[in-house]
Design a protein that fits this description.
Helix 2 runs antiparallel to helix 7. The mean pLDDT is 94. The protein is built from 10 helices and 6 strands, in the order ααβααββαβαβαααβα. By secondary structure, the chain is mainly α. The relative contact order is 0.18. A two-stranded antiparallel sheet has the order 1-6. Strands 2-3 form a two-stranded antiparallel ribbon. It starts with 9 loop residues before the first helix and ends with a helix. The chain is globular. The longest helix is centred in the first third of the chain and has 27 residues.
Length: 206
Amino acid sequence: MKKPSKLKYPNFEAKYPWLSILFKAYYRNDVGIYKELKIFTKESRRKIACKKGCFTCCLNPVVPITLIELMGISWYISEIIDDFAIREQLKGQMLQNKETPVCPFLINNECSIYPIRPIACREFFMTGLPCRPNEDPIVSRPNDIWFPSRNIARKTAMELLSFYDFQTDTEKLRAYEAGYISQNSSDMHSIDWSQMISTMNLFETA
Protein backbone atom coordinates (compact mmCIF):
# COMPACT_ATOMS: atom_id res chain seq x y z
CA MET A 1 0.00 0.00 0.00
CA LYS A 2 1.35 3.38 -1.01
CA LYS A 3 1.99 5.89 1.76
CA PRO A 4 -0.85 8.44 1.58
CA SER A 5 -0.38 12.10 0.80
CA LYS A 6 -2.73 14.96 1.57
CA LEU A 7 -4.84 16.37 -1.23
CA LYS A 8 -3.85 19.93 -2.07
CA TYR A 9 -5.82 22.31 -4.27
CA PRO A 10 -4.85 25.73 -2.80
CA ASN A 11 -6.91 27.85 -5.19
CA PHE A 12 -10.03 25.78 -4.66
CA GLU A 13 -9.46 25.59 -0.90
CA ALA A 14 -9.35 29.38 -0.82
CA LYS A 15 -12.60 29.46 -2.78
CA TYR A 16 -14.25 26.67 -0.78
CA PRO A 17 -12.86 26.62 2.80
CA TRP A 18 -14.78 23.43 3.60
CA LEU A 19 -12.51 21.55 1.17
CA SER A 20 -9.62 21.88 3.62
CA ILE A 21 -11.74 20.23 6.30
CA LEU A 22 -12.55 17.35 3.96
CA PHE A 23 -8.95 16.95 2.81
CA LYS A 24 -7.73 16.91 6.41
CA ALA A 25 -10.32 14.30 7.39
CA TYR A 26 -9.41 12.10 4.44
CA TYR A 27 -5.70 12.43 5.21
CA ARG A 28 -6.24 11.58 8.88
CA ASN A 29 -8.26 8.55 7.81
CA ASP A 30 -5.77 7.41 5.15
CA VAL A 31 -2.72 7.76 7.39
CA GLY A 32 -4.38 5.87 10.22
CA ILE A 33 -5.37 3.04 7.88
CA TYR A 34 -1.89 2.94 6.34
CA LYS A 35 -0.27 2.54 9.76
CA GLU A 36 -2.72 -0.06 11.00
CA LEU A 37 -2.49 -2.11 7.82
CA LYS A 38 1.30 -2.21 8.07
CA ILE A 39 1.07 -3.59 11.58
CA PHE A 40 -1.73 -6.00 10.65
CA THR A 41 0.05 -7.51 7.63
CA LYS A 42 3.31 -7.84 9.57
CA GLU A 43 1.78 -9.49 12.62
CA SER A 44 -0.80 -11.67 10.87
CA ARG A 45 1.33 -12.40 7.79
CA ARG A 46 -1.82 -11.96 5.74
CA LYS A 47 -1.81 -9.96 2.53
CA ILE A 48 -4.28 -7.33 1.45
CA ALA A 49 -6.01 -8.55 -1.70
CA CYS A 50 -7.20 -5.15 -2.92
CA LYS A 51 -5.17 -3.61 -5.73
CA LYS A 52 -5.51 -1.45 -8.81
CA GLY A 53 -7.96 -3.11 -11.18
CA CYS A 54 -10.24 -4.50 -8.45
CA PHE A 55 -13.79 -3.25 -8.71
CA THR A 56 -16.05 -6.02 -7.39
CA CYS A 57 -16.83 -3.91 -4.31
CA CYS A 58 -18.11 -1.17 -6.66
CA LEU A 59 -20.75 -3.42 -8.24
CA ASN A 60 -23.06 -3.53 -5.24
CA PRO A 61 -21.69 -1.10 -2.67
CA VAL A 62 -23.27 -0.04 0.59
CA VAL A 63 -21.73 3.40 0.99
CA PRO A 64 -22.91 5.95 3.56
CA ILE A 65 -21.98 9.48 2.52
CA THR A 66 -21.97 12.68 4.58
CA LEU A 67 -22.95 16.10 3.26
CA ILE A 68 -19.38 17.35 3.07
CA GLU A 69 -18.36 14.25 1.11
CA LEU A 70 -21.24 14.89 -1.31
CA MET A 71 -20.02 18.45 -1.72
CA GLY A 72 -16.52 17.14 -2.39
CA ILE A 73 -17.78 14.77 -5.07
CA SER A 74 -19.83 17.57 -6.66
CA TRP A 75 -16.77 19.83 -6.75
CA TYR A 76 -14.56 17.12 -8.21
CA ILE A 77 -16.87 16.04 -11.03
CA SER A 78 -17.92 19.61 -11.83
CA GLU A 79 -14.58 21.41 -11.66
CA ILE A 80 -11.78 18.85 -11.83
CA ILE A 81 -12.87 16.13 -14.27
CA ASP A 82 -12.54 17.73 -17.69
CA ASP A 83 -12.96 14.73 -20.00
CA PHE A 84 -16.25 15.35 -21.83
CA ALA A 85 -16.93 11.65 -22.49
CA ILE A 86 -16.44 10.74 -18.83
CA ARG A 87 -18.62 13.63 -17.69
CA GLU A 88 -21.44 12.54 -19.99
CA GLN A 89 -21.15 8.92 -18.87
CA LEU A 90 -21.24 10.01 -15.25
CA LYS A 91 -24.42 12.00 -15.82
CA GLY A 92 -26.13 8.99 -17.36
CA GLN A 93 -25.07 6.66 -14.57
CA MET A 94 -26.03 9.14 -11.85
CA LEU A 95 -29.52 9.38 -13.33
CA GLN A 96 -29.80 5.58 -13.15
CA ASN A 97 -28.48 5.43 -9.58
CA LYS A 98 -31.69 4.06 -8.05
CA GLU A 99 -32.19 1.52 -10.85
CA THR A 100 -28.88 -0.34 -10.53
CA PRO A 101 -26.73 -1.50 -7.59
CA VAL A 102 -23.52 -0.44 -9.37
CA CYS A 103 -21.69 2.65 -8.09
CA PRO A 104 -22.51 5.57 -10.42
CA PHE A 105 -18.87 6.64 -10.39
CA LEU A 106 -17.47 3.38 -11.76
CA ILE A 107 -16.17 4.21 -15.24
CA ASN A 108 -14.34 1.61 -17.35
CA ASN A 109 -13.98 -0.57 -14.24
CA GLU A 110 -12.18 2.21 -12.35
CA CYS A 111 -13.25 4.74 -9.75
CA SER A 112 -13.59 8.07 -11.56
CA ILE A 113 -13.52 10.01 -8.27
CA TYR A 114 -10.78 8.00 -6.56
CA PRO A 115 -8.95 10.92 -4.86
CA ILE A 116 -12.21 12.17 -3.35
CA ARG A 117 -13.93 8.79 -2.78
CA PRO A 118 -15.99 8.50 0.44
CA ILE A 119 -14.55 7.29 3.72
CA ALA A 120 -16.54 4.05 3.51
CA CYS A 121 -14.64 3.22 0.31
CA ARG A 122 -11.30 4.34 1.69
CA GLU A 123 -11.45 1.95 4.63
CA PHE A 124 -12.76 -1.22 2.96
CA PHE A 125 -10.07 -3.87 2.49
CA MET A 126 -10.12 -7.60 1.84
CA THR A 127 -7.48 -10.07 2.97
CA GLY A 128 -6.64 -13.38 1.37
CA LEU A 129 -7.92 -13.79 -2.18
CA PRO A 130 -9.35 -10.99 -4.34
CA CYS A 131 -13.14 -10.88 -4.53
CA ARG A 132 -14.65 -13.09 -7.19
CA PRO A 133 -17.01 -11.62 -9.80
CA ASN A 134 -20.45 -11.04 -8.25
CA GLU A 135 -19.18 -12.12 -4.83
CA ASP A 136 -20.59 -10.42 -1.75
CA PRO A 137 -17.76 -10.89 0.75
CA ILE A 138 -19.89 -9.64 3.62
CA VAL A 139 -21.88 -12.85 3.15
CA SER A 140 -19.27 -15.22 1.73
CA ARG A 141 -16.11 -14.21 3.61
CA PRO A 142 -16.83 -11.85 6.50
CA ASN A 143 -13.68 -13.01 8.31
CA ASP A 144 -11.56 -11.82 5.39
CA ILE A 145 -12.76 -8.25 5.70
CA TRP A 146 -10.30 -5.93 7.44
CA PHE A 147 -11.75 -3.27 9.70
CA PRO A 148 -9.95 -0.15 10.91
CA SER A 149 -9.92 0.56 14.62
CA ARG A 150 -12.46 2.75 16.36
CA ASN A 151 -9.56 5.11 17.02
CA ILE A 152 -9.32 5.92 13.29
CA ALA A 153 -13.06 6.44 13.05
CA ARG A 154 -13.00 8.81 16.01
CA LYS A 155 -10.08 10.88 14.73
CA THR A 156 -11.61 11.13 11.26
CA ALA A 157 -14.98 12.12 12.69
CA MET A 158 -13.37 14.79 14.85
CA GLU A 159 -12.08 16.44 11.67
CA LEU A 160 -15.40 16.12 9.81
CA LEU A 161 -17.38 17.53 12.71
CA SER A 162 -15.65 20.89 12.27
CA PHE A 163 -17.83 21.28 9.18
CA TYR A 164 -20.96 20.98 11.33
CA ASP A 165 -19.95 23.90 13.58
CA PHE A 166 -18.92 21.86 16.58
CA GLN A 167 -16.24 24.11 18.04
CA THR A 168 -14.45 22.32 20.86
CA ASP A 169 -13.01 18.83 21.07
CA THR A 170 -15.47 18.09 23.86
CA GLU A 171 -18.43 19.03 21.65
CA LYS A 172 -17.06 16.98 18.78
CA LEU A 173 -16.43 13.95 20.95
CA ARG A 174 -19.96 14.09 22.35
CA ALA A 175 -21.38 14.34 18.84
CA TYR A 176 -19.26 11.43 17.67
CA GLU A 177 -20.24 9.23 20.61
CA ALA A 178 -23.90 10.11 20.00
CA GLY A 179 -23.60 8.86 16.41
CA TYR A 180 -23.94 12.26 14.74
CA ILE A 181 -21.94 11.25 11.65
CA SER A 182 -23.92 8.09 10.92
CA GLN A 183 -27.22 9.83 11.66
CA ASN A 184 -26.34 12.53 9.13
CA SER A 185 -25.19 10.21 6.35
CA SER A 186 -27.14 9.00 3.33
CA ASP A 187 -26.82 5.70 1.50
CA MET A 188 -25.34 6.17 -1.95
CA HIS A 189 -28.30 4.57 -3.70
CA SER A 190 -30.87 6.69 -1.89
CA ILE A 191 -29.37 9.92 -3.17
CA ASP A 192 -30.96 11.95 -5.94
CA TRP A 193 -27.93 12.99 -8.00
CA SER A 194 -29.89 15.27 -10.35
CA GLN A 195 -28.85 18.42 -8.48
CA MET A 196 -25.22 17.43 -8.88
CA ILE A 197 -25.78 16.94 -12.60
CA SER A 198 -27.26 20.45 -12.74
CA THR A 199 -24.12 21.77 -11.07
CA MET A 200 -21.96 20.00 -13.66
CA ASN A 201 -24.01 21.60 -16.42
CA LEU A 202 -23.63 25.05 -14.88
CA PHE A 203 -19.84 24.80 -14.96
CA GLU A 204 -19.94 23.58 -18.55
CA THR A 205 -21.89 26.62 -19.67
CA ALA A 206 -20.03 29.17 -17.54
